[in-house]
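Researcher: Next entry in the queue.
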Amino acid sequence: MKRFLQAVLLIACLSPLAHAADKISTLVIHPEETIYARFEVSAKKIKLVNVAKEADGQAQVIFTLTREAKTGILELKVDNKFPNDLIYRAEIRSKTRNLHTPYHVTPVVGGKVAFEKLPPAVEEFAAFDFKLEK
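Model: Structure for this entry, 134 residues:
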């Protein structure tokens, strides 16, 4: 009986975490990766619903992070397929140095491509808090 109660308690404690894991709110990209992001758009909100490394024809935003061979500087390319401007917040991270800092990004005009230059020490780029501006 004691084991049964422990199992029930464990399941009760872990079930809220399982539900929270279903929600995607941050997109993380590493150098030399391409990430395809799909969103669910309602009247006033935009919600990230799928992030994939495989080519996705239905993705509304495509993030590509490449490193220039000569200088080592990273270039982030953001392809916005929405008709409206895409606004988001970002953070750059270095896992080996255990550092992270907010990074100012420019909004991506609807139907256009934007480019951002990142320092060579960046190992991850995280994008979150996505919004569409009319």
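Model: The two ends are 60 Å apart (CA to CA).
Researcher: Noted, moving on.
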